[in-house]
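Notebook entry, cofactor series.
This is the third protein in the set we're modelling with a bound small molecule. For this one the ligand is copper (II) ion. I'm keeping the input format identical across the series so the outputs can be compared line by line later. Sequence and SMILES below, as received.
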Amino acid sequence: MSRHLFFVLFVFALIAAGCATGVVAPTSTPVPPTVVPATAIPATSAPNPAITPGLTVADQEIKEASVTIPSVIAAEPGWLVVHIAAEGKPGPVVGQTLVKVGENANVVVAIDTSRATETLFAMLHVDQGQVGVYEFPGSDAPVKVGDAIVMKPFKATQPATAAPTQSQVQVLIKSFKFGANSTLTIAPGTTVVWRNEDKAPHTVTADDGSYDSGNMGQGAEFSHTFTQAGEYPYYCAYHGGPGGTGMSGKVIVKAQ
Ligand SMILES: [Cu+2]
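Returned structure with ligand:
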């Protein structure tokens, strides 16, 4: 037997022994794979480079203390955060919700409506640090594309409240006067409707310029809704002037 053949046999013997030990090894209960709870996975996931983060917003009325963001595209798990406006820029946060990687349609975010401003900012933040816990200021920073924060402003109006008891008041313009009594006191939210009964044209022009009917021929109507408490003097541009001069009147808006 040559040394070479001996070596080959020796290798076969080793393989056979290996197989044998594999076969005769005592069977033990299989060890289940370690299950890591989702919340315990460290948030080291890198953003998917194939996805460009972005969002689409829509002006809306606040419903059930929530706003809806039509579309949010995230490259990594994150937060859709709603900021209120402070001097035209995103200010404090009034609500946030988790978003998944990819497109999230119609994302509903519960917000603190008592602090909501007319303009709100929808902003995409990452979910780093402790996953599922919003940490900002902290690890959950805004997402940027280039140098730009992924953010868009939108208008959110408060839901309409109960209608005022008397929502509309008419003032007849007659004989070059604004009604029998030129001073009218109304509740906030009331709409005043002026109607010109004269053959002569008139105008309803606010002293502060906040509203102006322009020329009103006979039978013409002009309306304005007063929402804020205060005094609102007005005049006819043809027959009066600001400061109660000539043909003029005053609307006093007072909470009742
Ligand atoms: Cu007039």
